[in-house]
Structures are given as C-alpha cells and as structure tokens.
Amino acid sequence: MTTLTIRPACQADLDLLWEFLAIAAYEPNAAAARAVPVVATHLTGWQRPGDFGVIAQRDGMAVGAAWARQFTPSEQPVFYVDANTPEVSFGVYESKRGQGVGQALIEALILDARRRGVGLCLNVRDTNPALRLYERVGFRLVRGSEVRNRVGGLSIGMALV
Ligand SMILES: CC(C)(COP(=O)(O)OP(=O)(O)OC[C@H]1O[C@@H](n2cnc3c(N)ncnc32)[C@H](O)[C@@H]1OP(=O)(O)O)[C@@H](O)C(=O)NCCC(=O)NCCS
Fold it and tell me: Which of 26, 50, 86, 98 is deepest in the core (most CB within 10 A)?
C-alpha cells in the first residue's frame, strides 16, 4: 500500500473540507452539508483564529480530514465543554476506511491540540462504530451529555482525557 501522509489543513483546503464535513455528518454532498446550519457551523468562516486541522493523503490525493473548532456558548453548539475544548469534525472517504487513516488523523489532531494547550471534544451518534476508535485514542464519554440528534437517534458527547 502507498504511504500515507498527514499534513496541516490550511485556508485553501476549504472546498475539500466541505466534502469531508458532508461525510462526517452523513450528508450526501458538500451542498447538502452547507444547507444544514447545525452542520455548516463547523466550517463556515474557515479558517477562524483557533481553527486547526489535518488532511490525510495517499499518492498526493486527499483521503480524509479531521479538524477542530472552538465554539462559544452563544453559537449554541450541540455539545459544549468549555472555552478551551474545541470540537472535532472527522471523515474518511468510504473506499479508504478500515486502513488506519482515521486513527492517523485523530492522533495527529490530538498532538496538535496538546501542542496548542487545548483539549478536544466531539459529538457522536451512539450507534457509530467510530466510538471504539475514539475510546482507543483517549476520548471518554461525558456523563449526562446525551441528546436526541437531528435524525431522531441519540448522540453523546466525548472529551479527550
Ligand atoms: C470514523 C472514520 C473517520 C474512521 O476512519 P477509518 O479510516 O475507517 O478509521 P481506522 O481505519 O483508523 O479505524 C477503524 C475504526 O473506525 C471505526 N469505524 C469502522 N467503520 C466505520 C464506519 N463505517 N463509520 C464510522 N466508524 C467506523 C471503528 O472504530 C474502527 O475500529 P474497530 O475496527 O476497532 O471497530 C470513518 O469511518 C468515517 O468517515 N465514518 C463516517 C463519518 C463518521 O462517522 N465520522 C465521525 C462522526 S463523529
């Protein structure tokens, strides 16, 4: 298999990030992701001060991305920890899953967060197999964070410990 490289996400990656936001939010495409305010809020205005992220590439082609954005309570994020704990968005192209791309991305994002002196949190549907990956790299469920999500299931909050 070809080498996987992880690089920082920059301002010019915005279009690419919309594709991965659609994946992260289970929307069919970037246009659909832009049309749902609670989804679009993870990227609108990228790259805000404090936004940071990473992109995974194989053979120079992007295959996945993970990034983090700090919300304020007034933005009414679905899950909020504090002013020093940005929220993760995370997706890998379906054909590239199960090959360690996701783990490499989230580990790189965690390293970057630690360098910046911030935590990380995320909101995940309770049926999402990604829960296992999050626990493996150090996220833990936040008690009392369960909320009904926009498709009628349960989502839970997790934070890096
Ligand atoms: C979550 C995701 C980014 C992981 O990427 P990946 O490259 O497949 O991850 P890796 O190969 O490094 O690790 C595999 C782990 O991913 C998770 N996973 C596997 N298939 C998955 C799927 N279809 N959806 C979500 N997570 C999955 C599992 O935790 C798996 O670990 P396990 O084999 O021990 O159960 C990717 O599956 C994805 O884009 N899923 C759809 C979007 C999503 O759920 N994003 C997170 C929202 S909170």
Answer: 86
Q: Which of ligand 1's atoms lies nearest the C-alpha of 98?
A: 11
Find, among 56, 40, 38, the residue nearest to 105 by Cα.
56
Cα–Cα distance, 103 to 13 (Å, whole number): 21
Helix (H), strand (E), coil (C) string for 25-55 = CCCCCHHHHHCCHHHHCCCCCCCCCCCEEEE
Model pLDDT for residues 48-60, shown as the tens digit of each residue? 999 999 999 999 9
- DSSP secondary structure letter of residue 79: S
pLDDT at 2: 84
The answer, yes or no, to whether any atom of ligand 1 lies below 6 A from the CB of 128, is: yes
Whole-prediction pTM: 0.96
**CATH number, span 4-119:** 3.40.630.30
Domain boundaries, the chain: 4-119
